[in-house]
Every structure is written in structure tokens, then in C-alpha cells.
Specification:
single chain; DUF817; transmembrane helix; two-stranded antiparallel ribbon; 6 strands; 7% strand; DUF817 family protein; membrane; alpha+beta
């Protein structure tokens, strides 16, 4: 069991190479940035180079790259809206900044998609009892829409979460660390990923990747209730990744 846990940790670490690269760049940029670059632009340059290396090493297929870059778009649009609503901010200057949001922020969302793609390969994931595509797309659309409408009308996140638990109540993932095939419920896997992203968010804000209003004077822990937002975002990422990629559909078991 200890050996399998160690192997599981190694495979998870391999799946997190791109997110870890982002943390490394954020850490370095707190201590050194070329004099001719703003910090946010330096981060963007480094992440573009890292992503290019991934492409040259063929770490993702063309279809997977399409999924990853789609999350750059969804993420950047999401960031522009939230920042201009005052939910969080990027207080430093940058040349590559759109409506107060540095372009590098899209990589944060692409990193989640990258993790999903590599974890799928490394853990040999298989879908069991995945809901019909039309229902999944409706839920995903409502999730994304609610992130915007909750500023103007009621926040339906808890209603959506209840609906998600019902929709995915029979859904699970088979995964393989060594020879034995293990299983985990979809909702639990989404929650666990959300928790670790929340931890990563605390590290990111500590490294001044962005800041919430309560962190403007001094850093403090991100509200644990944000996990509910990450839970919904993880489902959006996973469901869209599965929907856009035929390969993952082929891994489905009814």
C-alpha cells in the first residue's frame, strides 16, 4: 500500500509539471525580474516559453492543445469580468494587460486543464456511467453563466451543486496506479481537486500572483468558501475537456 501511495504521488507530481512551473516562475519573479520588463510581463514571457517547450516535446496532442488554449480564452474573459467587479485585482503595471488583467492569468486556467489531461494519461482514467452529453453541456453552461450573473441576481451555486451531485451520483472514475484498478466517485474527485487548487491559490496569492481585497495590506488565507467556486470550475474544466476530446469519450464505460 505504501509503495502504491508513493507511486500515486509520483504520477500526480508528473501531472502537475506545468502548474509547478507556474509556481516556480511566480516565486522567482518575487526576487528577480529583468530591469527592462514589468513583473507581470516577465511571468507571461516565461510561461509562453514553458508552454512552447511542452509543445515542442509533444507533451500534448493537437486536440489537447485546442482544449488547453480554449481555457486561456475562457479564463481571461472570466478574469476581466471578475477584476472589473472588484472581486480581486492585479495591482502591478504591465504592458500586456487587458482591462486591468495581465494576459498571463489565462495560463492559470490552462494549468487546470493541463493537469486533467496529464492525470488522465498517467493514471489511465476511465469513465463509468458518464451522463448524457446534452445534460453535461447544460450544467457546464449554467456553471459558467452563474459566475457572471451572481453579481446581478441570486447566486445559484448551491442549487447547481445539488444538481451536480444528483447528475453524477452514478458516475465514477477507474484509475490505475500500478496493476490494481481502483475507483473513485466523480463528485469526490472533483471536491479533492478543488481543495488542492484552493491550497494552490493560497500559495499564488502569497507569491502576489493576484490579491483579494482583504489581502491588500497583508497576506491572509483565502476564504475556504472559495472551494465551492473551484468545485464548480473543476467540473466545467473536466466536462468541457471530455466533451471536446473524442479520445476521452473512447475511455467511457457504460
Amino acid at each position: 500500500m505504501i509503495k502504491e501511495l508513493a507511486l500515486f504521488t509520483i504520477k500526480q507530481a508528473k501531472s502537475c509539471i506545468f502548474p509547478v512551473s507556474i509556481f516556480s516562475v511566480l516565486f522567482i519573479s518575487n526576487f528577480w525580474v529583468p530591469n527592462f520588463l514589468h513583473r507581470y510581463d516577465f511571468i507571461l514571457l516565461c510561461l509562453v516559453i514553458i508552454q512552447t517547450i511542452f509543445i515542442l516535446l509533444k507533451q500534448e496532442t493537437k486536440q489537447e492543445l485546442l482544449v488547453i488554449f480554449s481555457f486561456h480564452f475562457f479564463g481571461l474573459f472570466f478574469e476581466i469580468f471578475k477584476v472589473n467587479q472588484g472581486v480581486w485585482s492585479y495591482p502591478e503595471d504591465a504592458i500586456f494587460k487587458i482591462f486591468q488583467v495581465p494576459v498571463y492569468s489565462g495560463f492559470m486556467y490552462a494549468a487546470v486543464a493541463t493537469y486533467v489531461i496529464h492525470a488522465w494519461k498517467n493514471l489511465k482514467l476511465q469513465l463509468l456511467n458518464w451522463p448524457q452529453t446534452k445534460y453535461v453541456l447544460v450544467v457546464s453552461s449554467i456553471i459558467y453563466l452563474n459566475f457572471f450573473t451572481n453579481h446581478y441576481i441570486y447566486d445559484f451555486r448551491w442549487v447547481i451543486i445539488v444538481a451536480i451531485i444528483f447528475l453524477f451520483k452514478k458516475t465514477s472514475f477507474n484509475f490505475q496506479v500500478s496493476e490494481k484498478v481502483r475507483n473513485i466517485s466523480a463528485s469526490l474527485s472533483f471536491l479533492l481537486i478543488s481543495f488542492f487548487i484552493w491550497m494552490a491559490e493560497n500559495i499564488s496569492t502569497l507569491l502576489k500572483a493576484w490579491q483579494y481585497p482583504h489581502q491588500s495590506d497583508a497576506w491572509s488565507v483565502v476564504d475556504i468558501r472559495i472551494i465551492s467556486s473551484w468545485f464548480l470550475l473543476v467540473i466545467f474544466v473536466v466536462t468541457l475537456t471530455i466533451t471536446l476530446s473524442q479520445k476521452y469519450k473512447e475511455h467511457r464505460i457504460e
